[in-house]
Amino acid sequence: MSERTAPPRTVLLRRGEVHSPADPFATAMVVEHGQVAWVGSEGAADAFTDGVDEVVDLDGALVTPAFTDAHVHTTSTGLALTGLDLSGAPSLEAALALVRRFAADRPADRVLLGHGWDASRWPGGRPPTRAELDEATGGRPLYLSRIDVHSAVVTTALLDLVPEITDRTDGPLTRDAHHTVRAAALGAVTARQRTDAQRAALAHAVSLGIGSVHECGGPQISSEDDLTGLLRLAAEEPGPRVVGYWAEQGEAGVARARELGARGAAGDLFADGAFGSHTAALHEPYADAGHTGTAYLDAVAVAEHVTACTEAGLQAGFHAIGDAAVTAVVEGVRAAAEKVGLARVRAARHRVEHAEMLTPETIAAFAELGLTASVQPAFDALWGGEEGMYAQRLGAERARLLNPFAALLRAGVPLALGSDSPVTPLDPWGTVRAAAFHRTPEHRISVRAAFTAHTRGGWRAVGRDDAGVLVPGAPADYAVWRTGALVVQAPDDRVARWSTDPRSGTPGLPDLTPGSDLPVCLRTVVGGRTVFVRPGE
């Protein structure tokens, strides 16, 4: 019997801090049959010691629900973890040096794969030319995706493998040309490489206290084999739960999603592109370009897809970043609701990924239509602020409107937090910190609200209201953390006020003030089975 199929052990955890709304002062928890059976005080824990398989002395550690990362590209994450990652390159010259070293270290790779360059953060602000990449690789095929994964630079040798691309203009490839070269590059990855990358990404996730990931696959992003292989790996080996989404449009997409075992025909079904690549669809032109980006779907196409998904009992979902794309999605979902009924659309919990550029009107529409906003706070941490990439692309005034988490919550819009890894790293506590300390103060939400959106919010986004929280009957998906004193944050428009007073009756959370150390994951448990233990613990 494998570890995955063996019955989970009955465990008593005690002498710690258990983050549970069932008891804000809980120090102990019992897990039985893969579920939380009891939470309570240390004195009451004595009654359980003889009836469990294992007693875990927490020694003051914090126990929380495991995180759910609501937007991940698992294979690409694994390839970035094990391959060429340019996200830390401080300049074009440094990036080219990393390419040279990577090419020298990988003489047998048919196609060299890399990710993460961001010319907007480099002196001079320009990406590498094809000639520079040809020289750095010695003329070998190379695919380098920009950090937002909506454009890429490539070598001449890779273009030679894709003869249907006739435009050899230098510069980053976008839209159809990018999708074509990406398919060719990822098609060179062997099944063994893909599985190794997936295994590395899932292992990294659980080492960070992530118990579930939402895989956003699709024909323009990955492949059918990639999704089915990942779902099979997750079912067979200890690790996080994986919920799959397949981003293919219309009735054919619905049928394919169901065939592949996906939760919905959703995820990165592109309504537009991204700000960094000038492909997010805007109502008004970019501040640094004379156009309004790229719209891939209109309201009619959105309505057709939402209707097909709703009638099939599957989730629909769209990637929408710019205000024009968000408007198209809202108008399309509303048209679908007029056809199949608002109650059915709301019950389906359709999703919008990223949802960065919103207005009061589109926020109200999200609430009306029951749309979940699957958002990535690290985007603001990386690109927000007066001097950030958002301000470069949109101007400071429009940039300040982006990622309005507080307004979404005030309107009653469900939030599910994620990373879009490898666009930004898997980093759950860093994600909570980014939401609580948004670069635009009026968009900040409390640590408690952000934590809830990154734990329970991800479960609710897949239709499960009974999970992501440590109460009796909930799935025993939890993480154990070494951290400092727990505090309760009171949100304020100007400052973040903290309290360590236990009389508040609110479960405390780690102090995430910028500059403070983030909690360290000691153990991750999924369905009552331990899937990660930090070495030495």
Automatic annotation (TrEMBL):
CDD domains in UniProt: YtcJ_like
Is Hydrolase included in the keywords of this UniProt record?
yes
Q: Which residues form the Amidohydrolase domain?
A: 54-532
Xref: SUPFAM superfamilies:
Composite domain of metallo-dependent hydrolases, Metallo-dependent hydrolases
Q: Which UniProt keywords apply?
A: Hydrolase
Q: Which Gene3D superfamilies match?
A: 3.10.310.70, Metal-dependent hydrolases (3.20.20.140), Urease, subunit C, domain 1 (2.30.40.10)
Q: Which GO terms describe its molecular function?
A: hydrolase activity, acting on carbon-nitrogen (but not peptide) bonds
Q: Which residues form the signal peptide?
A: none
Q: Record's Pfam families?
A: Amidohydro_3 (PF07969)
What name does this protein carry?
Answer: Amidohydrolase
Organism for this UniProt entry: Streptomyces cadmiisoli
